[in-house]
């Protein structure tokens, strides 16, 4: 009889524990993916300054209209010279939708130079794919090198798209100059850090 009572008490305690755990899990706020800090950007000639995390997608020609404002947040970075960067993180409803978004972002970046040329006739440039980074569900790195003969300016942009589960991040970095002067290896490190920080 005593054994039965102990067993019943144990079962009741276990049931209560499961109920509390279920309530806690249901009411807990999901942890938002983490953003890069200024110190995690590629080295620059002057220190990086990080802006606040803001709702919606960053303003970026190459991925405009691809990143949804809903369920997205972004952060802008700048230096005192002509170098800037931006990171957008989107949390999709599930991993399948996140994977589809990452594919759309890669496609948009791969076609960005052609859209720039259509928008700015006479613009010259080259675009390159710099390979995949093995972090979480993976990340891909790109560069877009442009020159405007009429103005006499050259610009280099680096992009990356990475995913961890339901979270997708796209990072853009840009400055005056060309690919030879861009911190490509540093940007790879930044991308790896950004994807690893998502969750």
Features:
199 residues; alpha+beta; 8-stranded antiparallel β-sheet; 4 helices; 8 strands; 32% helix; globular
Q: Can I get a quick summary?
A:
The protein is built from 4 helices and 8 strands; from the N terminus they run H-E-E-E-E-H-H-E-E-E-E-H.
Protein architecture, described:
With 199 residues, the protein is an alpha+beta fold. The chain has helices spanning 2-27, 95-110, 112-119, 184-197, and strands at 49-50, 54-55, 72-78, 83-91, 124-133, 139-148, 153-164, 167-176. Strands 1, 2, 3, 4, 5, 6, 7 and 8 form an eight-stranded antiparallel β-sheet that branches. It is globular.
Task: Specify the overall morphology.
Answer: globular
Radius of gyration, in angstroms, nearest whole number:
23 Å
- Helix % is 25-40%
N- to C-terminal separation?
50 Å
Uncertain runs are: 1-27
Q: What average pLDDT do the residues reach?
A: 88
Strand content: 25-35%
SS elements, strand count: 8
Elements, N to C (H/E) = HEEEEHHEEEEH
